[in-house]
Every structure is written in C-alpha cells, then in structure tokens.
Request: fold
Amino acid sequence: MIAELGHYALVLALAIALIQTAMPLWGVKSRDPVLIGLAAPTAVAQFVFIAVAFAALAWCHVASDFSVLGVFENSHSAKPLIYKISGVWGNHEGSMLLWVLILGLFGALVALFGGNLPMTLKATVLAVQGFLAATFHLFILVTSNPFARLEPAPFEGRDLNPVLQDIGLAIHPPLLYLGYVGFSITFSFAVAALIEGRIDAAWARWVRPWALAAWMCLTLGVAMGSYWAYYTLGWGGWWFWDPVENASLMPWLCGTALLHSAVVMEKRNALKVWTVLLAILTFSLSLLGTFLVRSGVLTSVHTFANDPARGAFILAILVLFIGGGFALFAWRAPLLKQGGLFAPVSREGALVLNNLLLTTACATVFIGTLYPLVLEALTGDKISVGAPYFNYTFGPLALAVVIAMSFGPLLAWKRGDLLAVAQRLMVAFAVAIAGIAASYAVEDTSTTLAHFGSGLALFVMVGALADLVERTGLYRVPFRTALRRASGLPRSNWGTAVAHFGVGLTLLGIVGETQWGAERIASIKPHDVLSIRHYEVTFDGVAPRPGPNYRETVGTFTVRRNGRLIGVMEPSRRSYPVRATTTTQAALMVRGLSQLYLAIGDPNPDGTMSVRLYHKPMVLLIWIGAAVMMLGGGLSLSDRRLRVGAPRPAAARAALQPAE
Amino acid sequence: MTRRQRRFGLIGTGLAVLGIAAALVLFALRDTIVFFNSPTDVVEKHVKPGVRIRLGGLVKPDSVVRGDHANVTFEVTDGNKAISVAYAGTLPDLFREGQGVVAEGSLDASGRFKADTILAKHDETYMPREVADALKRQGHWKEGASYGGAVPTSQARTP
Reply:
C-alpha cells in the first residue's frame, strides 16, 4: 500500500511538473499574472509529492518490504539500519528518485527564496526547472519504477552490494547530486535569460549564490567519493581517472569557471554571453555524468546496473536539453549586449585566462573519457585511456591554472600591473624557494618534481593570503587596525583567499602522496615484521569475528615507530554470505597529516597472508584542501552583496577598500 | 589599444592555449592509450613483447597458482586460446576462478603476460563489457547466465 502511494505521488509530481512548465510560460507570453503566479506554488507542490514518493520508498526499505522488487534486490532484514536508509539510493531506481528529489528541492528553494526576482524571470526559471523534472519523472515511471512489485513476495532480500555497505554511500551520492543537480538552477536561469533576451549584472548576482551552493556540494561530493574509493578499494589510490570520476570532475571544472566568469559579469558587466554558455555547459556535463553512470556505456568501477533501454532514454533527455540549450543559445545569444572594456592584463583578463584554462582542461578530460567510445564505434578497437594520458594533458593545464591563481586576485580591475603584483608576491616566492630548499635538505632522494611541486603548493598557499595582507595592511599598520580592517573586508574576499589556500593544501597533499609515499607488498607469517619509513609493523595473527550480516577475518598488526609501540591496526576481509562476496576493509592509522594504510588479501595455501602496506605522507591534505575550498565557497556565499536587496554598504565602509 | 586589438589578443591567447592543449592531447593519445585484447587477439595479432595492453577473459579454472612473496600465476582464457599471466601483489576482492578479469601489463620474451594491474569491479554480477564482447565473439557467452557466482534469479526468488 505504501509503495502504491509512493508510485501515485510520483505520477502526481509528473502532472504538476507539466503544469509548472506550461502555465507560467503561457502566462509570461500572454502577460497573465495569475498564470505567472502559478509557478511558485506548483514548484513547491511538486517537491512535496516527490518527497512523499521518496519517503514511501525509504519506508519500504526500512521496513524490509521484500514485495517491492528494488527492496528485495538491494536489502536484507539483517542489514544495519543506516544501510537500509542509504540503500534507498544504492541502486539505479532509488538513485534516480534521489536525483529528482534534489531537482524538486532546488525548484522549491527558488520558489520560496526567490522573492526579489522579477516575476517573469522567476516564472520562466521555474518553468524550465519543471520541464527538466517532468522528463526525469517520465524516465523513472517508464523505465525504472522504484515501486515495482514482486509476486509472490520473497521472505528475504538479496542484500545490498557489500561494497556499498559503507558510510560513504550515505554521504557521497546525496552531496554529489546536490552539486550536479544544483547546476540545473544556473541552467534554468541561463535558458530563462535567453528566452527573455535580456541579461544584466543583477542576473549574475542572482545566479552566483546558486552556482556557489552547487559548487560547494560538488566539491565536497567529489572529495568524499575520492576518500571513499581510497579506503574501500584496498589499493590506496585516491583518484583513478575512472570515467565516472571524470564525469564528476568535468562539471566541477566547468562550474569553477562559471563561478569566476559570473564575478566578471556582476562587477564589470562583461563576459555575459560566455557566462550563459558556461551555465549551459556545466549542467550539460552534469547530465552527461548521469548518462555515463546510468547507461553503463563505459567500463567503470562504478557501473553497478545498466540497461540499454534506460541508456537510450537518458540519451534522448541529454540530446533534448543539451541540444535545446545550445540551439537556444545560438539563436538568442546575439541579443545579449556586450559591455565593459578591459585591458589584457587586468582582473578581468586573469579571470578570462582562468576560464580558458579550466574549460580547456575540462575538454581534455572530456576527450580522454569519451575517446574510447568514439574509437570503438568507428574502428571496433577497444582501448583504455589511463592516468598517463591525463598526466600529459590535464596536468600542464592544471599547473597553469594554479600558477595564474596567485596573480589574479591581486590584479586591479580594468587595467592591472603585473610587475607590482609580482612584487607583492615576493613573500610567497621566498617561502616557495625556502620550501624547495628545505625539501632538498630533508629528502634529497626524491624527484625534482617533488621539490618543485611542494614549492609551488607553498607559493599558492602564501600567495592566496597576499591579497588579505595587502588589504588589511598587516605589518604596515598597527595590528589592531589590521584586525579591524580584516573584519570589515567583504566576505567574498575572504572566500577567494580561503578557497585558493585550499587548492594549495590539496596540491601539497597530492605532491606528498605521489612523490614521497612508500609501498610494501609481501606475503607474511605471524610474527613477521614489515618496515616502512620509520615504522615497523608486526603481524600478530588472524582471527575470525562475526558481524551483523557478514563474517570477517581480522588481521592484527602492532605498529612501532623507532621501537616504540604506537598502536594496533586491524585490517580485515569481510565475507557476505547472501551475495557470496568478500570485501577488503583497509586499516588506516592517522599520524598527523599522514596515514599508514594496511590491507590484507586472502590467506595463501602455505599459511602466509598477502598484505599491502603504504605510508602516505600528507595524504589527508588532499581532502582537507577540498573542505577548505568548500569553506571558502561558504564565506563567499555569505557575502551580503549576494543577498539582493540588502542595502549597499555605507560610503565610509566602501572607502576603506581599495577601488575595485 | 583599440577594442579590435584587444579582441585579437584575447582570441590569440585562446587559440594558443587550445593549440597547446590539442598538441598535448594528440601526443598523449598516440603514446599512452592501451588497447584491449582477448587471448585470441594476442595470438592472432602477434602482439609484441613489451607493448602495454589490457588482457581480458575468464580466469581458467584450476589454473591459479599462488607462489611465495605474493606472486600469483593464472591463465586467462576466452574459450579458444589461453595466456599465462604472472602478477605480484594482492588480488582484488572479486578475483575468482571462472570469472571475468582484466589484466594490464605486457608480454615478456617468453610469451608470458606480466601484469602490474588486475582490475576489480564493484559488483560481483558485473562482467567487464570488453570481456563479454570477447566471449561473445568466441561463442562462449550464455545470455543471462551467471558469470560472477551470484545466486541465479530464479532460485533466489523461491521463498
């Protein structure tokens, strides 16, 4: 009964989404305020009905109603509650329902908090959002009904894929979808601007908070996915250049470019057409990501369900929205007036360079991800494009972005002075050189790349703070004055500095992990000792241990550093009887920012155990950096300037800041 | 500078970045991509020793030999030909005899495949698409059959 209720709610949501699409658009065309006014309530109602459907599915999972096919295939009565809940989206049907739930959520948020948007713009945005939702509702109802029943109902379910029985599943997909789907709002805004044929700086100010919020979620979602893969796949890598990972990286790169170009548009009324294009492109890449994951056209570690009919349907949606978006762009973009002149060396110029490099980097990832598909279709050859390709192509471009990143925020708008900026970055240069020297002194065995990589990371980190130092006059005026000025700085300045600092942290983590990491792979017997760096790891033995819906074999290892006992690591292998599957549970020991990573394999016939032991210096910085980037986004989001309608800052406060 | 010059400068920079990126992409696509081969392909195409390839097929039953120092050898077959594979390290969780596998590495002079990567998949019912296609070509593919040791659907549904 609950399942039928959910199904019915979803059908209603589809009907409401269609009303939400048609009526406001008709209203805008015929200037009918009643029809225009329908947009907001229908958007909210649509979200409520999706929420009912989602809650119904969640109830089926929690109550282990195995008469529902999706529950039977992905749940088990002995499964812990947290995985019963996260298992709702641990399969194709449920994850698509989560997708539309978030789509509906963003629509409802615009309806509720978009009070200061012009009526027609708001109505058009919500109509586009409604159309998006309608196609995905149709997709779910036609090809992937999560409420399909099973007759007769089995007594027990087939359990969730054990690899997915992890806290990562509870966090990673919702965050990633908040990011992916969040960019639907910027897409809807862009399409609405094209339909209206009018766009101005205020548009950028309305769009930027949504883009920022989506970008923050995507940043954290990608980082979470990376950490999950790192600890769960058992071979210690944090990025595999897997098609599905690339599918989440591409919207991130494009979305990052969008954030920056929206700044130019807002402040200088320039790059309008480009910003609209980026908004369309970013969401197109999100849709492409959904298509790649859901259709199973690419071989990937993430492909856990695929079905050609679904692939064809999603491809049709993809063509409709991407094709439609670009066609509309080609038709209407010439209407948007350009404005705002600037010299090549200026803040605008730097942001254009940022956009150029980020989108090109995104294009190289795109080519590397889709080239195998194209080549196979053309020649039948099956190839894989791996890390070396991305190191050659994405690497140099990312490097250029990172270097330019320190200069950009210090350049003045309209016309900048590169030499003056370089002078202001003297401290950063000095720190970087000191870092390189220190790195040579400590680790003279490692590669040149490692030394310069860490130098660059330090340069980026210190360079990110240079703008703040400059603006507050730190070291030039009394500390108290500097502090007062710091609190008066716009939050978006803080956001920029913090986010750029985060990039430096991530870079440092990447350099540490890839250049200074150590690895031991061995077959060992109890009482054998493995040494790695300053650590000695003793294998004490293995013992079985029962779990709620698995049995596990736990290895016990004591870890000593220079002879002193510092802890015990317990990696294990879990065997899930229902699915006849085993998973590796790596043991992680955090030492400052570094980690020891230990995973065990199956026991060998001669009684030994295969183990992998890694020392990963500074590896945590990779994800801490991402979290810091997100924090920077949050600071920028809280800037009063983005709350349209807030009074302009008083003249006195404005005078405090250097001219922008 | 006039508006026109600025625009040319902008376009020039854009083209330069795109040009460099295109050169990098072409270079990387020539030198770093790895072709997928079934055991039959390896034999028939005379893949040269030292060329990096991906070898995919089924792990031949009773062929897995675990040596010391985490060395493992096994045979990969597509039902027609079989290639012996040597690998040092921990095998992925889902590695099993009779199951699909993709190994990356190169042939040595004696014709044995030295793998440095064995690909693991998230799902035990999941067969790498390349492997499925290769098996279909050799006529060893049974539609709907279970290749991963999963419980067949019909049995699991009986209460």
Q: What stands out?
A: The radius of gyration of chain A is 27 Å. Confidence is low (pLDDT under 50) at residues 300-305, 645-660 of chain A. Chain A is about 65% helix and 10% strand.
